[in-house]
């Protein structure tokens, strides 16, 4: 049950018919792995911690650089050259000491992703690397864990919600392994609020998922054009030959 301090802290949630005490308890019992604590992960983890997600696993092997501060709102000048994971853990504990925050200050890959994915109820992909995205997608499908993927570059953002239990395509169906690294924030730039928008939406869909509020757009790629302030969506069909989610994998 909720403590007296939690009733006060989450009072605005408790006033919502869609959340209430039952929904807040579900958030308290939930665990989330956030991979990447940059422009997407920064706002996402702040809102998840503030919402009362019971356990947050924060994974990032990088250190804070001054060029990050234009969009990575979790950090400040005092954070420079410090571990992103450890800095994020300390700041989120200050924000909400009711939440358990675990810093994973190491590089995740195909060999160890399963160890972390298996521990949580939901995963947020807040990375900017195609290889780790593919590996994270594969790990989530292997363990049957829902995955919220965010991406942003220039004035464009993307949001993709994937659930291995549902009949839609996965990240591998959408972007094959032949799609190499072409553009990223480092070589093409990004406007800060676009990254923040997508990160906050990842947190929103996570909260909706745990509380059963509304509809999470599973299997639909949401495309945001910040210049024209417009959204477009498209369904991601399952590729029967996909080795991650298709018939070939099921037969194997």
From TrEMBL:
| Superkingdom of origin | Bacteria
Q: Where is coiled-coil annotated? A: none
Q: Which Pfam families match?
A: ThiF (PF00899)
Q: Which SUPFAM superfamilies match?
A: Activating enzymes of the ubiquitin-like proteins
Question: What InterPro entries would the database entry show?
Answer: ThiF/MoeB/HesA (IPR045886), ThiF_NAD_FAD-bd (IPR000594), Ubiquitin-activating_enz (IPR035985)
Q: Identify the residues that the record assigns to the THIF-type NAD/FAD binding fold domain, covering every copy.
A: 10-244
Protein name per Swiss-Prot or TrEMBL: Molybdopterin biosynthesis protein MoeB
Which gene codes for it?
thiF
């Amino acid at each position: 049950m909720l403590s007296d301090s939690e009733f006060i802290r989450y009072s605005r949630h408790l006033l919502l018919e869609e959340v209430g005490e039952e929904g807040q308890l579900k958030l308290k019992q939930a665990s989330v792995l956030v991979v990447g604590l940059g422009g997407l992960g920064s706002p996402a983890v702040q809102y998840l911690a503030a919402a009362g997600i019971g356990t947050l696993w924060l994974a990032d092997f990088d250190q804070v650089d001054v060029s990050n501060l234009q969009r990575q709102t979790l950090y400040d000048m005092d954070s420079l050259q410090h571990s992103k994971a450890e800095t994020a853990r300390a700041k989120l504990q200050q924000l909400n000491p009711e939440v358990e925050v675990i810093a994973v200050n190491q590089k995740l890959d195909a060999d160890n992703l399963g160890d972390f994915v298996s521990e949580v109820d939901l995963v947020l992909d807040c990375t900017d690397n195609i290889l780790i995205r593919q590996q994270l997608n594969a790990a989530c499908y292997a363990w049957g864990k829902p995955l919220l993927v965010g991406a942003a570059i220039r004035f464009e953002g993307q949001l993709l919600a994937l659930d291995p239990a549902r009949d839609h395509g996965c990240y591998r169906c959408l972007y094959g392994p032949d799609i190499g690294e072409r553009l990223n924030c480092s070589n093409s730039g990004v406007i800060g609020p676009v990254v923040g928008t997508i990160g906050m939406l990842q947190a929103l869909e996570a909260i909706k998922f745990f509380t059963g509020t509304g509809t999470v757009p599973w299997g639909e790629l949401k495309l945001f054009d910040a210049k024209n302030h417009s959204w477009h969506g498209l369904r991601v069909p399952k590729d029967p030959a996909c080795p991650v989610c298709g018939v070939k994998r099921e037969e194997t």
